[in-house]
Prior knowledge:
35% of the residues lie in helices and 12% in strands.
Amino acid sequence: MLGSSRQFRKKSLALSAAAVTTVVTAVLATPTAHASARGTAVGHYVALGDSYTAGPGIPTQTDANCGRSDRNYPTLTAAARTVATFTDVSCAGATTAHMTGSQGAAPPQLDALRPETDLVTLGIGGNDINVSGIIGRCVILGKLNPGGSPCKASYTLAGIDQLAGRIAATGDKIDAALQEIRRRSPGADVLVVGYPVIMPDDGSNCYSTVPIAKGDAPWLRDVEKRLNTMLAARAAAGGARFVDTYTGSVGHDLCKPLDVRWMEPMEGVDSAGLHPNAAGHQAMSTAVLTAVDAARR
């Protein structure tokens, strides 16, 4: 689920990275379409997450190893409000393990937190359940049985739903990450950012664009919804707030034309394949800004 060039397209979630923390220590008050008359002020904003946060393939890339863009939703969010200090340590390929453990040469992402940090966005979990591997398997099986649901069948052998187990296990890891964020930055407003629409929400498919079997398309849609539902539940249980980026992105899935879609197909044009493009990150930023402002009214 998570890529800037062909490297990201082929290994969209398996990107090992040497992250360089981006710290902007100036007031980022660049006028944008998000500008608010309230001028919501944030002292220290830290962005944590995987490639759906980093923005691989979207120019300009500020960290090639992590696939981090200066047009990703954290940067757009910081630029739309009065932020004194902004730190973006999101990195393609990150899992919950990289919150407290290093990712290649990149330090643990939670090391960016401070006691005075007052805003944190966390976009993580897709790599924990191996979304890229799931989609990869579905593409292979879809070529063998385009009219069936071979991928779903392969993940539910003997009546055991493998992905349900993965999602549940990831929930425990989200809990631990949120607890550690709260310990390091007790006064922070913590936003858990969900994943935007990938496959069409109506369950349809575009086989010529992404060769996923007809019956697997709605199943994959539901897997993503289950992941987002888990993230929302863990956010609520952990004293954080969930940012729904899925609902607003319905109708902008990877099957749509270039000028409509917010999610790129396997051969990405405006971003790495199977990742949000620039328009997608703009929409995600809008959702985050709405949540930020709601807490500061």
